[in-house]
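Lab notebook, page 48
Experiment: co-folding of the full assembly
Goal: obtain a model of how the components sit together before planning crosslinking
Operator: M.T.
Materials (sequences as entered):
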Amino acid sequence: MTDFEINALLLSIKIGILSTILILVPGIFMGWVLAKKNFFGKIIVDSLIHLPLVIPPIGIGYILLIIFGKNSFLGNFLFENFNINLSFSWIGAALACSIMSFPLMVRPIRVLMEAQDKKLDDAARTLGASELKIFLSITLPLAYPGILAGLVLSFARSIGEFGATIAFVGNIPGETQTLPLALWTLIETSNSNNEIIRLGLISVCLSLVALLISTSIEKTFLDKLKNGKK
Amino acid sequence: MIKKIIIFITLILSMSSYSLAQKDTLYLSVASSLYNVSKSLVEEWKKTNNTEVVIITGPTSLIARQIYNGQTSDIIITANKDWLLWMNNKELINIEEASLIAKNSLIFSSGVNKGFYIDIKSENFREDFIDQLSSSKFPIPHPSTVPLGIYAKEALESMGLWSLLEKKFVYTASSQSNLKFISNGDALVGISYLSDAISSPNILIVAKIDEKIFSYKKPTYWAAKIKRNKADNDYDFIKWLRSIEAQRIIKNYGFESIN
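Observation: model returned without errors.
Model output:
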């Protein structure tokens, strides 16, 4: 593999992992809120969370650039005081991927939490368990398959993300040029179809490996859950 | 299992070979039509300079805007002077210090075996052009922002073809995406830089659009140092671009040298 390919591959994995980690806790929390709580404006919160699925990714990238770009108030504040420049950095790319994949994290977790038997929570409550204890010992373990599905879907979305990334963090080799952006660069500039196909195959392999790993993790967790029940 | 996952994640995250900002690195933003020649130029320059170079490419309009929005860049090379003026107004560069590094020409180009032939010096070449084009689309980079689009609009207007072709336009994002439309055969004919046609094996030159016959601004490439970079250092790269050695490489890629 060439340096160009290795850089893009590792960067994609790195950004995919960070973006997934960033949304894991907020994703579980929002899944729980939407599944278990009823409050005024719930439908609006629900719609807002799903918005990244509907808005064109490049629009989200541009909004992020307006909010965090060096010429914005927030971007300038972060840069002047903490020397943080989110736009055009790999951490910014992870942020863009997080936003794009957030609904895919929340959705499966919420579905599983909604399907849980409420009587279990009530039984725990009558035995004096606190809300936190109910969450940690009943809601969360029963939602494991949903969390895993959310992790896999978010990671997959992140490594394939293009529009928001290119608009917010640009196409800088070694810094923000992930596999889809590297592929786009080659499609635009390369005279060799082989180069393009090679990178396309690397993308396919990465996705396959990620799916295989996630399936094996899922199997291990589910086995453990089943054994625990026995 | 969880331990294994944590170790794997830590390993990947620690692969920070990407903290290029901490190394001695020159960030070079180049117009997309210069991407291939830039790779050769950098390769040659690195033989005598121990500095890492990162080439960032895109349409001139995009790279200029990205630098304005905070993208790290030490040098920009644009495909026209208008965008440098824009950057000068935003106090990103000093236009008086910008250097001309290459020139180019426009051509009509087609994919191989497309059988498009035109003699632009003949009297009825416009009718002939439209006849041969038939139902095919005509790709053109956006004429309001992308340099090739701006040059192409001037040239087509001067040839009296603009209004005839307007309904057939497919707007593309850069000179390179425009070239792909033509080389893939998705469009029968299009407008390109001469340098792109020379360096692309799947492109045929249908006709050179002579700027002495048709009036359009000659495409020129300008390099300028970005003001707000870390140490205001361009490692004398711009000066080197004007050297005989660099100009020879530029010429090999079908550009006109400045000498």
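Interpretation: The interface with chain A takes residues 1, 5, 9, 12-13, 15, 17-18, 20, 27, 32, 35-36, 54-58, 66, 68-72, 174, 176-177, 180, 199-202 of chain B (CB under 8 Å).
Next step: discuss with group before ordering constructs.
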